[in-house]
Amino acid sequence: MKFTIVLLACLFAVAFANEEADVIKEFREVNKEDFKYGYELTNKIRAFQEGHLEGEKTWLVKGEYEFVTKDGKHVKVTYTADDYGYHPKVEHSE
């Protein structure tokens, strides 16, 4: 469930840009008990996420995504997700 929430947060960053972009870099590694993925687009959107299964049902996830708003501000969100929820830290700069 929390993995889905974090994935949606990353997809939100892509949708927020609302423009077409080409992929500069992309990687993914998905295993039974851990995963990593990331991408970078030509429109300055970048995302990275990794997680691992702790115990039988608990995913511990961390990641970040960043983008530039339509008014030129750079936004970077760093987050963790665990049994207690999604924990973002948002940074804004110009």
What does this structure look like?
With 94 residues, the protein is α+β, with helices and mostly antiparallel strands. The chain has one domain. Helix content is 17%, strand content 57%. It has a 6-stranded antiparallel sheet, with helices on one face. The N and C termini lie far apart (34 Å). The mean pLDDT is 84.
Which key phrases capture this entry?
94 residues, alpha+beta, 1 helix, CHIT_BIND_RR_consensus
Helix % is 10-25%
Number of strands: 6
Count of the domains: 1
Mean pLDDT, to the nearest integer, reads: 84
Strand content: over 45%
Radius of gyration: 14 Å
The major sheet is characterized as: 6 strands, antiparallel
DSSP helical segment count: 1
**Could you say which structural class the secondary elements and strand pairing correspond to?**
alpha+beta
Strand order of the largest sheet: 1-2-3-4-5-6
Give the overall shape, derived from the CA principal axes: flat
What is the succession of H and E elements? HEEEEEE
Low-confidence stretches: none
* Span of the ends, CA to CA: 34 Å
Brief digest:
This is Larval cuticle protein 9-like. With 94 residues, the protein is an alpha+beta fold. It has one helix and six strands, in the order αββββββ.
Explain the layout of strands and helices.
Blueprint: H1 2-17, E1 23-30, E2 34-41, E3 46-54, E4 58-68, E5 74-82, E6 85-93
Antiparallel strand pairs: 1-2, 2-3, 3-4, 4-5, 5-6
